[in-house]
């Protein structure tokens, strides 16, 4: 038994190609003339949704439908149904093209505890990349585990322990001091300089086990977002270009980008709810 839409399509084909009357075509395919002549009326809002989706996917090339919809609902405050938005998203052919890859099944790591308040636990980790001329540089990312807020990104050719301490002091000046900082076992993190600084401040350094990056999963996931959304998208000529782009992106991440790990709102929104 064919659906009404299929019977309507067959009736339209018969009228167009065979030249028979609409009434005969409808009787032949068991379709009412009302159904045949029906023309859906598109709401003006659909054009607004389409314009917003095109603008979003143009300016945020790495965002899929999930982030776009959460941005429209939670950040911009639109109450459109997700099925309606998704239908328009598909009609515009805005789907991300993702190449499938073979994945290996692995045991699930033990979930990290989510802090109840800001500044309870921060996570910290390094990343590495290269400038257009091939020179290697590093990034230091600091994250508040409570609302996944990026607290800072430091960029330079070398980031020794003294530079790490200086960055943390700058963040503490406006954010306040954390109770603990989760780090790996890199030389910068196990140096006497950082350990003395943490002891003086009354901050516990929580070192993960060697070879267990899942124990620092929040900042590892954040690193992946950094790589996917801008670090792996552009070639930079100077360290200053990288730092400027990192600063601009960090504001967008904290204030404008919905985060699915915290319920589809932005880190700034979650921080405001906790105040």
UniProtKB/TrEMBL annotation:
One of its GO terms (molecular function) is nucleic acid binding. It holds the Pfam family rve_3. Residues 114-275 form the Integrase catalytic domain. It comes from the Bacteria. InterPro entries: Integrase_cat-core, RNaseH-like_sf, RNaseH_sf, Transpos_IS3. GO terms for biological process: DNA integration. PANTHER family: INTEGRASE CORE DOMAIN PROTEIN (PTHR47515:SF2), LOW CALCIUM RESPONSE LOCUS PROTEIN T (PTHR47515). This is Mobile element protein. It comes from Paramagnetospirillum magnetotacticum MS-1.
């Amino acid at each position: 038994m064919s659906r009404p839409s299929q019977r309507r399509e067959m009736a339209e084909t018969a009228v167009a190609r065979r030249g028979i009357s609409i009434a005969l075509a409808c009787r032949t395919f068991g379709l009412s003339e009302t159904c045949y002549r029906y023309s859906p009326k598109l709401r003006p809002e659909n054009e607004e949704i389409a314009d917003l989706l095109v603008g979003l996917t143009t300016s945020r090339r790495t965002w899929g439908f999930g982030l776009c919809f959460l941005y429209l609902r939670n950040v911009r405050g639109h109450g459109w149904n997700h099925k309606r938005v998704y239908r328009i998203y598909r009609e515009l052919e805005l789907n991300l093209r993702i190449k499938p890859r073979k994945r290996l099944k692995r045991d699930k790591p033990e979930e990290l505890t989510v802090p109840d308040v800001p500044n309870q636990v921060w996570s910290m980790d390094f990343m590495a990349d290269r400038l257009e001329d091939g020179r290697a540089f590093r990034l230091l990312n600091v994250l508040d585990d409570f609302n996944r807020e990026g607290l800072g990104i430091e960029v330079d050719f070398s980031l020794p322990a003294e530079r790490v301490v200086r960055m943390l002091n700058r963040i503490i000046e406006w954010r306040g001091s954390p109770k603990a900082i989760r780090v790996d076992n890199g030389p910068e993190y196990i140096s006497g300089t950082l350990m003395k600084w943490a002891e003086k401040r009354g901050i516990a350094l929580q070192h993960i086990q060697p070879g267990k990056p899942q124990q620092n999963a929040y900042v590892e996931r954040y690193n992946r977002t950094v790589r996917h959304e801008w670090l792996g998208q552009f070639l930079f000529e100077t360290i200053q270009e990288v730092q400027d782009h990192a600063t601009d992106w960090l504001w967008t991440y904290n204030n404008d980008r919905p985060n699915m790990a915290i319920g589809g709102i932005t880190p700034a929104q979650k921080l405001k709810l906790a105040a």
